[in-house]
Design brief:
418 residues; four-stranded antiparallel beta sheet; VC0802-like; eight-stranded mixed beta sheet; 2 domains; alpha/beta
């Protein structure tokens, strides 16, 4: 008997009507004779509401109690969906992370899963009962509820699918798959039938919101097929687990994709901030002090550009950090001014990172050159560049985002009917 894990995001569970629609998908798979486990997020907007309540409390916030609070959104979704299924005559039971249990470390707000006890899930299979598991949460060895960070329900779903050796994990959301670009910006964007784990990792880390990066890493490690599909499509009613090409986007091993385009997609991230330190002394150890201090503070640095003066005495150092960390980074670097001895610290959030991604880049030259040429023809200045084996990213002013993404999408022959 084949096993399927079905994960529903917040937009899929935003109200009772949408929950009923989700229940219809669950009923369809269950009636096929599949073993079904369902992972749920909180209802749309509920986690933000709970976070805002916590933020109104003055003083140092207790992160352990915050996790207890914000994990309650998934608890409500699990219970409501189980009730809807039971009303349809389908045996279902809601489970919280601590009940299984899903064991995590004790990093509240960003916990990592250590182990999942699957005994109760297996018992439910034997009873022909559907388990509805609250995502985003677990329990530490200190017997405290933990949460996995934003998008953590994706990680819960993939981790459970790996633990029970499921045949596939379906991620139900408000889009019908992974696209070559954001369709809101590029109307000619195409849905990808398949995408490799590596490409999806780059897309997720570079701004695509379809899947959380950690969940893709888990799936890649275990070789689990992941399918992104829409909760709101009616044409999926005759879908078959063996006919995975018919709907959505399959995330799989690279060798399962018969023919690769050189570039699979264009991604962008607005969640970037730029910091420039001017007229630093060009001495050994300065960069280590700057980036070591930021690392000690838990601030991730991405793109780095260094410009050395013509006399070789000074350098300007530009780098990017998450926009949410720019204040902390600025305060930290200002406290080090006497040690680093820079002239000015300049910060900006009016930037965006645009990336071209594709495993085909490994065997084809000229990808970066075409990107730079295309942007130059549109008069778009590049502020920084970063590359990996399957991606090229540039930093540009945010005002050029739309024209940059559209132009690159066309340049790499990704438009529909191209």
């Amino acid at each position: 008997m084949k096993t399927i894990v079905m994960k529903f995001g917040g937009t899929s569970l935003a109200n009772i009507d949408r929950m009923r629609q989700a229940a219809g998908h669950i009923e369809r798979e269950f009636n096929k004779g599949l073993r079904v486990i369902v992972i749920v997020s909180a209802m749309a907007g509920e986690t933000d509401r709970l976070v805002n309540l916590a933020n109104k409390i003055e003083g140092n916030l207790d992160l352990s109690e915050r996790d207890v609070l914000i994990s309650s959104g998934e608890q409500a979704s699990a219970a409501l969906l189980a009730m809807i299924l039971k009303a349809k005559g389908i045996e279902a039971k809601s489970w919280l992370g601590w009940q299984l249990p899903i064991k995590t470390d004790y990093m509240h707000g960003s916990a990592r899963i250590l182990n999942i006890d699957k005994n109760d899930l297996e018992d439910n299979f034997n009873k022909h009962e559907i388990s509805i598991v609250a995502g985003f949460q677990g329990i530490s060895d200190k017997n405290r509820i933990t949460t996995l960070g934003r998008g953590g329900s994706d990680t819960s779903a993939i981790a459970i699918a790996c633990a029970i050796e499921a045949d596939i994990c379906d991620i139900y959301t408000d889009v019908d798959g992974v696209y070559t670009a954001d369709p809101r910006i590029v109307p000619k964007a195409q849905r990808l039938e398949k995408v490799s784990y590596e490409e999806m990792l780059e897309m997720a880390s570079l701004g695509a919101k379809v899947l959380q990066t950690r969940s893709v890493e888990l799936g890649m490690t275990s070789g689990l097929s992941i399918r992104v599909r829409s909760t709101f499509d009616d044409h999926v009613i005759n879908d078959n687990i063996n006919n995975q090409k018919s709907i959505g986007t399959i995330i799989c091993e690279e060798d399962e994709i018969l023919e690769h385009k050189i570039v699979s997609g264009i991604a962008y991230s607005k969640d970037e901030a730029k910091i420039t330190l001017t007229k630093l002394n060009d001495n050994p150890g300065i960069a280590a002090l700057v980036f070591g201090s930021l690392a000690d503070g838990g601030i991730n640095v991405d793109m780095i550009v260094q410009n050395i003066s013509s006399d070789g005495k000074f350098t300007d150092l530009t780098f990017t950090v998450p926009a949410s960390d720019i204040k902390r980074a600025t305060v930290m670097l200002e406290s080090l001014k006497n040690s680093i001895q820079y002239d000015k610290l300049l910060g900006s959030k009016d930037i965006v990172k645009v990336s071209v991604i594709g495993v085909g880049m490994r065997s084809h030259s000229g990808v970066a050159a075409l990107m730079f040429k295309t942007l130059a023809e549109k008069g778009i200045n590049i502020l920084a560049i970063a590359t990996s084996e399957i991606k090229v990213s540039v930093l540009i002013d945010v005002q050029h985002l739309e024209i940059a993404v559209k132009s690159l999408h066309t340049a790499y022959n990704l438009d529909k009917n191209s």
